Amino acid sequence: MTKNFLLAASALSVLAFAGAASAHELTYRDNGGGNVGAIDATDTGGTSEPYSLAQEASTISPASAVFLLADTLSGGSSLPSGNVLLNITVAGGTFQGSVTGGNITADPAACPTFTATISSGGAPGSNTVTYIISNSSAGCSAFNLNLPIRPNAASPVSVTTVLETEAGTPIDGRVSTLQIVDRPSAFDVVIDGAINSPLAGGGALGDTFATLTVLPVYTTFFVGANGHTTAPETATVGQLGTIQLTVDTTAYRDLALNSVAATDVVDTTTTVVGNWTAFDGAGGDVELGGVSATDITGTTATFEDTASPVALTGGPLPFVVTRETAAVAIPTSNYEATVAYTLDSTFYNQEAPVVGALERIGRDGTNVVFPWLNDSTVSGQSGTTNRIRLGNVGGVAAGPVYAEVLNSSAGLPTAAPVQIAPGIPAGGEVRISTADLTAALGNFGRGDVRISVEAPATAITARRYLQTANGGITELSSGTVASDQTPADLTDVE
Prior knowledge:
Layout: H1 2-19, E1 25-28, E2 38-39, H2 41-44, E3 51-52, E4 65-72, E5 84-91, E6 93-95, E7 104-105, E8 115-121, E9 128-134, E10 142-151, E11 157-165, E12 170-182, E13 187-192, E14 209-210, E15 237-247, E16 265-273, E17 285-288, E18 291-292, E19 295-297, E20 300-304, H3 310-313, E21 317-322, E22 336-343, E23 354-357, E24 362-374, H4 376-382, E25 385-392, E26 401-408, E27 418-421, E28 429-433, H5 434-441, E29 446-453, E30 460-467, E31 473-476, E32 491-492
Parallel strand pairs: 2-4, 3-12, 14-24
Antiparallel strand pairs: 1-4, 4-10, 5-9, 5-11, 6-10, 7-10, 8-9, 11-12, 13-15, 15-21, 16-20, 16-22, 17-18, 17-21, 19-20, 22-23, 24-29, 24-32, 25-28, 25-30, 26-27, 26-29, 30-31
């Protein structure tokens, strides 16, 4: 009768405990670090911080480690004196070797009679085990877990503990989970072609475009507000962005506390594709971090870094072009960088090259925005056709004409302007139909389209006409060209 009474009292205690707004907490415990083959809070940087194991790490050596954890009840509560079921589940890893009752311990001063025995599970290669914790004395509010765990390949690892009575009654919130290993990317290429980039020391500087305002036209970059204003950029020098290979030295390359290092990068090759015809002659240059390209062949500039790959890991390297000494025309061009790097194969898997855009070099001229244009499909449905007429009232031929979708009902704006005509003869015209726009820009549905001409605004007229199925024509005023349209627009046409 006494025994039944005591069990009932214990159950009531657990029920009251479980009803409280509380939860036991699984954490790393701090053993001061430097534990051979074991990982604690000193090694991770905090009791709730995971061990950062680089996702690039290949065959991890050693394959496993003992993770030193603690499970603490909330609010100074104690484990109930009856049997407690402790279930441990590992996600993203498995037990290295068999776990035993000795893997669960408690402070002998606070828990002098504490015992833990395996009820089920815990075999080598498994990921779950259930213990029966017994004989917990008053004041026994925490216990230790020394878990030998082998992380799965490239997988984060977490441990979950569940506390409940043999009858299934939750104890102190029942569940607690701790991520014990995360897998950050330790090596990341950053190709930054953004103007006014938010990244410290990164990106392009001013907008880089060849100007009409200095003769000969398009032989210099525009200098001034909305153009080049900051060194090293000048009328003949442009910084099109920055490139770097970041290295997370707070991560580890293995489970033996060996940190990732910049010297783990043993080789890099950077290639940039673009138009170099104004930069590869006498006096011209194409540089990355102040070092000239090792080779320029066709549209590809190559930078080999076998001797000192640490240069690319030391911070953002400016990518700079310098026009050759002769006043040659600077072409419009996109520039795309590819960075390939080799990691020390003793520790890491190799990763694919990274590709990214640098700043585009454009030319200034005239931009006209035509709202609510349709592609051929939408025009066919509505029975109307858009026609655009561009006229050149100047005495010299205008340069190429470009089109670009700014927004689209199909959600498919083009990534860059597309040349739609080679130019406009002096005193001549170019007509653009709905079919022409669709052929150049694709099926964009309905959207706003910018037409750009390499010519001053005073030389260009632009009108849009809407032709209905019965042949009727309506003239629509559009854009920003000549004196009767606002604002006057002489700027980079991309």
